[in-house]
Amino acid sequence: MIKLLEKLPRTECPKFLHRVIDGVCGRDPPRLHDYSSVWSLREWLELVDTLSSIFRTAIGKKMSDEEVQQSINWLDIGYQEAILTCLKGRKEEIRQALVEKTNAISSTQLQDFDWQIKLALSSDKISSLQIPLLNLDLDTKENGVLKPLSIEMNREELQNLINSLESANKVVLQLK
Amino acid sequence: MEEVDKILIHSLRQVGTEVGEDVLSVKQFSSELIVEAVVRCLRVIEPSLGSGLSHVLPPGMSARFRLGMSLAQACQDLGYKGEIGYQTFLYSNEPEIRSLLMFLVERLRRESAESSDQPAGKSALLQRAIGAKIKAQLSVPWVPPSCRVPFLCQSQTPGSLHGFHARPLSLPQSSKVSRTTTKELKEYCQEHLPPVTAQMSQQPSVPASLLEWHAAELSAALEWEGEWNSQGLVSRLTPEEYKARKRQRFRKRIQDQLRHAAQSRSDSQHASRSSSDLADLLRSFTGGAGGRDVLAKGTRFTHTEKFAFTQEPEKAAQQMTTAAESLPSSRRTEQDLQAQQEEEVTSLQGQLEQLSLRIEEVGADVKKITVAISQVSDELKQKELGNAEKEQSLRVKKQTMDLLPDAENNLDKLQVLVEGSAKRVVSLASQWEKHRAPLIEEHRRLKELCSSRELESTRRLSEIKGLHEKIRQAAEEAKKKEGLYRQLMTEFETLPKDVSRSAYTQRILEIVGNIKKQKEEITKILSDTKDLQKEINSLTGKLDRTFAVTDELVFKDAKKDESVRKAYKYLAALHENCTQLIQTIEDTGTIMREIRDLEEQIETENGKKTVSNLEKILEDYKAIRQENSALAAKIREA
Q1: Is the CB of B168 less than 8 angstroms away from the CB of A26?
Q2: What is the complex's ipTM, to 2 decimals?
Q3: Where is the COMM domain (chain A) (predicted)?
Q4: In B108, B524, B534, B603, which residue has its Cα 20 to 30 A from B573's Cα atom?
């Protein structure tokens, strides 16, 4: 499968490989659209999967250069070198990404959050309300699926949330 | 008075009252203006008092009366001592209004001075700015989208809202990636790394990602600094060593936790699902960074895991066969085939079971045998040791046996030998002493040096800590002061420039000078008056005495001479007339004074606009009667 890489010209190779590593690190992976003249969809999927797993295992198992070279020894020597250079350059970044991933071992974990503050001017019963409301959006990842959560809170509820988060933080600090 | 009025009008304008350009003194204030001014002042001084009052005089008379009453109540609540009531606002007279406004403006000054004294940081400024902006936007009426002018578009259209979605960025100079730059990394940064703005496919997430990245780095740096200052410095390690030690500690802890968890799982055998969960977890760990070699050794756990997994499929297969047997048979051939297969499967399973049983048996045998081997080898070692001891004793005994025949000689020899060795021991001991003394000395010296160094280092450490603390404090103070300076500068810029303080002070000084001059004149006049009084008194005394003497003389002569008697009569008449004259003059003076008093009173009464106020009151009275009659008519109609 990795032999498919040789369809790409040698000079184009590093750029493509770096994009694949970007994908491993959590950014946008390369798009088939840019390479549709080189590979078919099936080939594309296989190639990207294989390369990603090679990068991941190479960094995750702390393989030496020779070991990595052995795992890709079906390739032309020039392509092998390209992969090795990319791997060496992005080693720390990939390692960091893998550590982050390992860090997230719980089933549900917070990915991102966003908030908006709103001032409720009136309701259907009261003409002048003037209550500030916080709209908290939590992006949680549950078993690998992104699940947005939206909560609207008034002042007291927000205070409650902050208090409980602070006590949780205290527990984490004690662990350190 | 004009000065006072100018100051009053200026400060009222600052509060937000719309005083017209042509209004120059309090005299020209209309009722509406007075009400507005008072309400605005109240709102600034005590928001809770002022917020319930309208600053526009209502049209209805009774409503006006009520507003006047509540305003008077509010002013009294604030501590106004003067006479105040609804009439103060509705039927104003100049001095009362002036004193009320002076009281309010004075309160205003103090309140605002107090509030500006408190130093406010950047956040307070920001909050104030946000508050002002929101207030301004709230005061603008809502306009339907089609009618919005560009100015309103900005504040009233919701705009394109983007969620805050941060994604990881790749930056060359970041503390997350280690500082050592390899050739490959450099090449990547120079040739293949796109700029930050091009790393995201969605533009709006670029600022979010940057902010997130920055916040993460900042908090990490702060945390590290705090930890290093509190614990790292005391441990006397270099930062790298400290980090390494910490990492080791963590690793050990995680390992302990995992082992503990695995053991408790293996104790409760049934939970195969959760143990497989844990297995996944462990596998993910092996893919990760640290603790890999450690976990590979977790033999006990892997054994239990294997056990659980090998048992599962067997059970499943058994269940399958029983289920298949219980199924009703419909097709012969297939059932035959199935039966055959089943038989095969059962036979194979039987074989498998037998084999596994045998393997287990053999394994148990092997274990037993290894235990036996180790026991036997232990025994062997012990016996060998015993053997060697016995051989030693045998050799000694043999030698003594050899020496026995020539006992005397040998005893002497032995004694000589013993003495020689004793001497040697003594000399060696003395030599040892010689060597030992300087060595001990050296040891002691080094120890002292060490302890003194330790002391020094602790002292330095505490010094460093103190310095760190000082640096932080100084930085904080500098930041605070800078913020204060900036705030004060902005405040200074926003302050109105038209009222110059120096002009006021100069005027006040002038007034004080005038007052002093006037006081001097008054004292001069007073002393003049006193002098005059004294002169008058002395003259009166002189007159009285002269008159008494003259009277006596003339009276004496009057008995003898007729013409003198006449003169005496004249004298008496003259005296009486003169007294009357003086009395009249004094009376005139008092009357003049009274007249002046009355004139002043008339002036003040005129100042109170009594006539116009009376007219107003009459009108208002009529209006109220009309309202009442209208209301009564309404009631009747209803």
Answers
A1: yes
A2: 0.80
A3: 109-176
A4: B534
